[in-house]
# Entry
Amino acid sequence: MADNPLPRLVPIQIQLNHPIFQAICRWPFADEFVGRLLANDIPQRVKYGKGRIWVYRDPNQTVVGFGVIDVCDDYRALTGDKSHPYIPLLAVNPANQGRGYGTFIVGHLIAEAALLAAQPNSECHDVLFLEAYTSSEKAISLYERCGFARLRNAPFFDQVAQKPYFVMTKRVNITAI
# Structure
């Protein structure tokens, strides 16, 4: 990837009622869980938590992907009883995959997590969490290239989706802010 610079995308924060969010919900994702999270999980995180939805536009103003970051307590037992940043979902439009957009999106969400953890008097830990189904080999590889590590080698099991998944973590750099 050293020969191919990351694409230049413009991150834009949107709300649930934004037409772009509605359009993203209609993208033809190969994995059914993306649609389930967009319909059920993400609205709850935005309405009742600290979830933020980001969309990413290319130089032609085309929305090529999105990502969500939240501050939550899901893994509070692992962060000294502090809330922590969490990426519940990110995706690149299936028509635009394979162009480096995922790497850009993950990098931006890592930077956003660092900002959340670095706020004065923040109760937010500097360890960022995400989850990836074991069948999402490309996503797991992307996260590992971006510095995430598996919490443990053995996967956890999602009772709703009936699929195994890994919990992945990365300490964000709050001193660079």
